[in-house]
Amino acid sequence: IVLTQSPGTLSLSAGERATLSCRASHSITSRYLAWYQQKPGQAPRLLIYHTSNRATGIPDRFSGSGSETDFILTISRLEPEDFAVYYCQQYHTSPALTFGGGTKVEVK
Amino acid sequence: QLQLQESGPGLVKPSETLSLTCTVSGGSISSSHYYWGWIRQAPGKGLEWIGNIHYSGSTHYNASLKSRVTISVDTSKNQFSLRLTSATAADTAVYYCARLHQLVSSPSYFLIWGRGTLVAVSA
Q1: Cα-Cα-Cα-Cα dihedral sign, residues A9, A41, A44, A39
Q2: How far apart are the first and last CA of chain A?
Q3: Which of A55, A59, B6, B89 is the most buried if burial means most Cβ atoms within 10 Å?
Q4: What mean pLDDT, rounded, does chain A reach?
């Protein structure tokens, strides 16, 4: 399964809502999709698993939704620390795993 | 608190073998509930899954790398390792090790990550 993330870059201001898309080449009927956040020089951090479940310690301004081939990560109100790159990852075809190409959320 | 730490040479010559080790601390690698994996990230690029291993020795590899990759586990040292043969400049990347959640006896999402180590392939 190929995951295509859009847009490549999202330019927003703190306090705004961010909507990130992850589109799958084949249906992920299981909804086995995760989202990660990566800041410069750091390892990725798990945000969301099973499409909509927040990982431990993740603020509730982060939410995930979607089904079949279209998945969304929403950040309801951007905080300064949320400007980063976000990746989706599918495990529907586990043990084969794939990542999307990433969306960078930058300061407008 | 579980921690993972990658170690190995930061520079590898073309055609040689890239070898890295991930040391797990604060927990046992022998837990049946998890898989252990390797991911890499070329400079300025996205994440690429390399492969996973279970402490039992069961492995799964990215099809695009399968002919060159071997992942092994040493439960006595609480470590798992990556070997990538015939390295080229395209293998230059930050290599991360991670623990994966096990879902219905299969690897799923990456729960805990190491800090990563940069490996350059150059003469």
Answers
A1: negative
A2: 32
A3: B6
A4: 98
Contact residues, B window 48-77, toward A, CB-based 8 Å cutoff: 48-49, 52, 60, 62-63
- Give how far A21 is from chain B: nearest CA, Å: 16
Per-residue pLDDT tens digits for B40-51: 999 999 999 999
Residue type, position A26, single letter: H
Is B44 an 8 Å CB contact of chain A? no
Q: Report whether pLDDT(A18) > 90.
A: yes
Contact yes or no for B113 and A87 at CB 8 A:
no
Give me the half-sphere count of Cα atoms (radius 13 Å) on the Cβ side of residue B63. 7
Contacts of B107 in chain A (CB under 8 A): 91, 94-95, 97
Which residues, numbered 74 to 113 in chain B, qualify as contacts with chain A under a Cβ-Cβ cut-off of 8 Å? Answer: 96, 101, 103, 106-111, 113
**Cβ atoms within 10 Å of A34's Cβ, excluding its own:** 28
The number of beta carbons lying within 10 Å of the beta carbon of residue B56 is 10
pLDDT mean over B19-26? 97
Calpha distance A57→A47 (Å, rounded): 9
Q: What are the pLDDT digits (tens) for A28-47? A: 999 999 999 999 999 999 99
**What is the widest separation between alpha-carbon atoms in chain A?**
39
